[in-house]
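=== RUN LOG ===
request id: a7f3
mode: sequence -> structure
chains: 1
length: 199
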Amino acid sequence: MNGPASTIEFVNDSGTTVRVLWLNFSGNRQLYRTLAPGERYVQQTFITHPWVVLDSAGNCLGYVLSDQPSKTYVIRPAAPQGLPPAPREFTDSFSRPAEERAHSVPLAPGVSTVEVAVRWQSPRDGFAQKLEIVRAGKVVAREIQQTTPSKLKITRRRTATSLVIRVDKLKPGALRFRVVATKVGKATKVATRVTQRRP
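=== RESULT ===
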C-alpha cells in the first residue's frame, strides 16, 4: 500500500559506484539506479517506502525510509568492519485506537540481533507491534509464531509505557513491523527505535 507521494535525492559521497534499490512489499530488492562516485539523482517514491544502497560487491552501505515529502540521503563510505548500522528512529502520531503505522528496515550483513523498542508517554495509552522477518521474499517469522523451522528467537518485554521486541539468530533479510494503537486517550506521539547488533 502506498502512502503520499514523496522524493528522495540520493547523493553518492561514498567514493565508489553504488546501486540504489527499492525494498518492495515482498521484502525483495528492486534496482532503480546505479550511481558513479559524486553523482546524484532525485527518486520519485512514496511515504513509508524503504530504499537500500549497495556497493559493487553487494555490501549494504546504508538505507533510508521515505518519511517526509522531500529529503536528501547522502551515501557515505562503508563503515569499518564490525560496526553495526546506526539505530533507526521513527516518530508516529496516533489519535484513536486501531490506527497502525508501518515501517521496514533492511537488515545489514552480519547482523544477528535486532531490537525494536516502542515508547509512549501516558500509561493510560497502549500500543502493540506486529513484526515479521522477510528473507528472499518469504516471511520466515511473524510476531512470536515462526512460520519455518528456522532457529529465530523472539522475546518481548513490556512496561506501562514501552514495548521491546528482540529477535536473535538473524540472517540477512528485512524487518517489517507495524505499531498499532490499542488504547489512546488523546492525540499522542510514539517513538520507535530499531537497533541492529552483530555478534
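=== NOTES ===
The chain has two domains: 5-75, 88-197.
The mean pLDDT is 86.
=== END ===
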